[in-house]
Amino acid sequence: MESKGLSRRSFLKGSVVTGAALAGAAALAGCSTSADAAANPLAEIQKPENAIPENWDAETDIVVVGYGGAGMWASLIGADEGGSSVTVLEKAPVEGGGNSRINNGEWTVIKDSDKFKAYCTAFSQGQMEEKMIDAYIAEAERHTEYADKYGMTYEVAEQALAGTIPEYWFLDDGAYAGIIGVADVEGFGMTTFHELDAKREELGVDVQFDCHDEHLIQNPTTREIVGVRYTQGSEEKTIKAKKGVILTCGGFEFNEELKNKYLKIHPFKFEGWEWNTGDGIRMVEEVGAKLWHMDMVISTTAMWTRDPEYDFAIFASPQSDAYFNVNRLGKRFQNESKTGGTAHNGWHTLMSFDDSIADYDRIPVWTIFDQKGIDGGPMGTQQGGSFECGNYTTDLPDEIRAWDGWSDDNQVEIERGWVLKGDTLEDLANKIIEFDDKMVYDNLKATFDEYQGFCDAGKDARFDRELSAENKLSESGPYYAISIYPGSCSTLGGPKKNEFAQVEDPAGNVIPRLYAAGCFGNFQAYTYGITGGNNSENMVWGRIAGRHCAQLESWDAE
């Protein structure tokens, strides 16, 4: 996969640049002229923020936008193997790490390449390009090599923390069971972040924080990306990227407009890195990139706070088996102990559209329970807990921690309204109706009565859940509810890239010197199927992008 000794001539040829672009390549160092504009329509429509400045505030070989897992790997390889100077622009005010830092840290270890390739074709229904699968496999097979080289802590496990390996192992009569393992990391992504960040510092990779409102600077004649215009704090700056720009901006989990536009269902709520607001989507659209996989997510279901001051999803559930789930109309729809879906695709179970309300009837789902679910212990994830990963971890600096984790007795969350409370079932229904007027109390009461009867009978005649008297709710209250939404991890859509991580336009032409990696344009299609795939995606395409970009000649070379 390595493209050694890549010359300027072969780079331009491989980028499928037009003859006119090749003719003008020698003039890349200067600003575009009126003659350039007349020769190329792009110059006439180019926005000022994408134009080449007369003077640059800074320059480097490679600019990486986003300091998550993919940005980390791209910058490490660009500096270490490519001998290039690298500057990273990170949106967060301090530190970084993105979702990769606050997730469970697992990454894919391929055990059978041939079956893995067939598996990718199977779970994506043929929508993943063969050349992309081949490139992924060739690089992913080097994961442990690079992990050992950079002193990463890991242990290869046969069972993923979140479930089966891989997600759809059962396809083709179980042909794909055991074709991959995962690297299990003690301390989750936080451990990996600090290990690699130390290596980044050793290599002299510069990271600039509080960088936002970025725009790619593009030569209007050749279409090459030559730098980035951005704002740091309140000061507008430009930085020249002599070899190229690698976009590792993450997803758009915290951009309601983009989620509602592109995802298959909505609302979709996430926990995680709050600076993932889809800035990169605007950036690549400005320079003519093609988007792909915009409806793709890696996600299960999670409780949404419904709180504008804490606007994110949380893993939470009643600490008792006495509960049932209802849709927006107050009706059960599943065996609550077998919610369906794979570990990272549980949101699929909420894809139900009800024409009687012209809307999704399972967004949200309401979990109904009684005092036992409160008294059983903290309902949500906590600092120092066994699954301490997310936007509340103790590892995060105070400036970027979203909250302090769930309270021991659940009372803070009740007071905030994250957990609804009603003295009677009707009181609870009215609390729900204040948020969602589709709830029908008569339906909820009928569901409650039926569920209680199933518990008495020891048999769930509707959904075959194992029920007994222990699952029964109190007949006198109080009652509680939390709202469950599709969401948790990250979106995966972004710019289309080729096997060298180069960003392409709608015609399939490379936009020269522009790369993408990580959740910003994940190569998986149709559904998420590769366990440990997000961290593996960062490693694969981050390394490929950093390596390929570093081999280019500087566009302003004499």
TrEMBL record:
<keyword id="KW-0560">Oxidoreductase</keyword>
<dbReference type="GO" id="GO:0008202">
    <property type="term" value="P:steroid metabolic process"/>
</dbReference>
<keyword id="KW-0274">FAD</keyword>
<protein>
    <submittedName>
        <fullName>FAD-binding protein</fullName>
    </submittedName>
</protein>
<feature type="signal peptide">
    <location>
        <begin position="1"/>
        <end position="37"/>
    </location>
</feature>
<dbReference type="InterPro" id="IPR006311">
    <property type="entry name" value="TAT_signal"/>
</dbReference>
<dbReference type="InterPro" id="IPR003953">
    <property type="entry name" value="FAD-dep_OxRdtase_2_FAD-bd"/>
</dbReference>
<keyword id="KW-0285">Flavoprotein</keyword>
<dbReference type="InterPro" id="IPR050315">
    <property type="entry name" value="FAD-oxidoreductase_2"/>
</dbReference>
<dbReference type="InterPro" id="IPR036188">
    <property type="entry name" value="FAD/NAD-bd_sf"/>
</dbReference>
<dbReference type="Pfam" id="PF00890">
    <property type="entry name" value="FAD_binding_2"/>
</dbReference>
<dbReference type="GO" id="GO:0033765">
    <property type="term" value="F:steroid dehydrogenase activity, acting on the CH-CH group of donors"/>
</dbReference>
<feature type="domain" description="FAD-dependent oxidoreductase 2 FAD-binding">
    <location>
        <begin position="61"/>
        <end position="518"/>
    </location>
</feature>
<dbReference type="InterPro" id="IPR027477">
    <property type="entry name" value="Succ_DH/fumarate_Rdtase_cat_sf"/>
</dbReference>
<keyword id="KW-0732">Signal</keyword>
